[in-house]
Amino acid sequence: MKAKWILLAIVLAPPVASFSAYAAGGNQLSRHDKVWMKKAHQVNMAEIKAGQLAEKQGKAAVIKQVGHTLISDHRMLDRQLTQAAHALGVSLPDMPSAKQIATMQMLQTKSGAKFDKTWARAMLHAHMKAINKTEMEISRASSPKVKQLAQKTLPVLQTHLNMLQKAETKLK
What we know:
Elements: H1 2-23, H2 31-57, H3 61-88, H4 98-108, H5 112-140, H6 144-171
């Protein structure tokens, strides 16, 4: 009798596992998907903080304006990311990376035109890196939901990069 139950459990196991994947929307997350989501969340937190610094410490109106855009856009992106992470069971970090925190601390020591130029350069670099990672995620994503999220994120990052390039030109 015990052997029948074991056999029954073995026979039923694959459909139960398949049903779980189906119930989750067929979103099998790779390690790469999870890492991208975690890093994207950290980018969003860092960019919101950077935008707040630009609004507070920026001298040039263009820096304050770009900072305001970063705050609103990265909050929106982070809401979408957080919702997706919750739905997919991905836990997100509570704070930006150590390098992002160090950049924010360094920016807090600057003021005036020096802040504006340093901030624009740092944000250009951060956005180029985020664009590169997001493009890689789009090409490698195992989860359709994560891929869709990355596809929605990319044009926002590209718009920010264009704004930052124009801002940097105005500062020269």
